[in-house]
């Protein structure tokens, strides 16, 4: 009996077809299929296959997901798991957590924590980050468990086919909803971004949820992915994010920008089915609005 879905892709054959043509129809990258053929990782009815045979209805094609060496130093820290299947792991990034290790020697990052989680659960894979968040921003981080899942979901992210929603608490009272379509470019210092007619197209939509203490909780959707886009656009409309010392004002109420990636919807790289992932509003943001 072949191992579980963490180690194999399994596909049921529904019509007579050659193995070569069957593989072309799968929701797998062509690069991954070529590697699977080259490294002899394809099985038919639990038997290793090395030829272009004809498949029959009822046959089961299995593609092995190879084990890998760690690409980060395992470090024991309990990260909150939001979702997990054979291809994807989603964690809730805490404020001030660094997402990605710069080199193999670095510790104290989500990469280190997830690598430890993998080893504890007998998952012999590299940590492949699909998205990232600024150090002070909290919320959903996606990790792929194999190269095919990474390339498939990362391509969806690049093509803007993944829905991402944020909570932002901004200064002042905002009513209703709106769309901000203003180009963003680097500022004179090369670090800060700014709205500039010579910049790249950027689109952000927002909806006010509640106002309290002269602050407003917004639901924000990114339609493009420019650096610091939400922070720049909200500053542009006169409502910078509370605690954002780069684009707004210092405050004693919170020690970071009040920005949280709370919702992500992706398609499973294995089945194509939609997966919805949510991360609850963190306590430091709740405190700003006296929420329980």
By DSSP, the count of extended strands is: 18
Q: Could you tell me the strand content as a percent range?
A: 25-35%
Distance between the termini: 50 Å
Low-confidence stretches: none
CATH superfamily of the domain at 164-261: Pseudouridine synthase
Radius of gyration: 22 Å
Q: Sum up the overall morphology in one term.
A: elongated
Average predicted local confidence, pLDDT: 93
Structural class designation: alpha+beta
H-E string: EEHHEEEEEEHEEHEEEEEEHEEH
CATH class of the domain at 164-261: Alpha Beta
What would CATH call the architecture of the domain at 164-261? 2-Layer Sandwich
Number of helices: 6
Multimeric status of the protein: single chain
Function: Responsible for synthesis of pseudouridine from uracil.
GO molecular function: catalytic activity, acting on RNA; pseudouridine synthase activity; RNA binding
InterPro entries: PsdUridine_synth_cat_dom_sf, PsdUridine_synth_RluA-like_CS, PsdUridine_synth_RluC/D, PsdUridine_synth_RsuA/RluA, RluA_PseudoU_synthase
Keywords: Isomerase, RNA-binding
């Amino acid at each position: 009996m072949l191992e579980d879905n963490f180690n194999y892709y399994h596909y049921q054959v529904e019509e007579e077809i050659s193995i070569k043509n069957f593989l072309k129809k799968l929701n797998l990258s062509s690069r991954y299929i070529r590697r699977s053929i080259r490294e002899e990782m394809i099985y038919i009815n639990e038997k290793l296959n090395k030829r272009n045979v004809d498949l029959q209805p009822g046959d089961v094609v299995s593609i092995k997901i190879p084990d890998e060496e760690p690409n980060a130093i395992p470090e024991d820290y309990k990260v909150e798991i939001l979702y997990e299947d054979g291809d994807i792991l989603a964690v809730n990034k805490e404020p001030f957590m660094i997402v990605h290790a710069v080199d193999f020697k670095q510790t104290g990052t989500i990469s280190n924590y997830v690598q430890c989680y993998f080893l504890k659960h007998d998952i012999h894979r590299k940590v492949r980050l699909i998205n990232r968040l600024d150090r002070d921003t909290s919320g959903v981080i996606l990790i792929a468990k194999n190269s095919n899942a990474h390339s498939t979901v990362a391509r969806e992210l690049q093509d803007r086919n993944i829905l991402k929603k944020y909570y932002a608490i901004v200064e002042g009272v905002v009513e209703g909803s709106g769309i901000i379509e203003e180009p963003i470019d680097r500022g004179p210092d090369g670090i800060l971004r700014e709205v500039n007619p010579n910049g790249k197209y950027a689109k952000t939509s927002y909806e006010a949820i509640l106002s309290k203490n002269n602050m407003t909780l917004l639901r924000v959707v990114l339609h493009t992915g420019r650096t610091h886009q939400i922070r720049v656009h909200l500053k542009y409309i006169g409502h910078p994010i509370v605690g954002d010392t780069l684009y707004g004002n210092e405050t004693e109420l919170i020690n970071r920008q009040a920005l949280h990636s709370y919702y992500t919807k992706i398609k499973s790289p294995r089945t194509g089915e939609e997966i919805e992932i949510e991360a609850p509003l963190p306590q430091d943001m709740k405190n700003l609005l006296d929420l329980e």
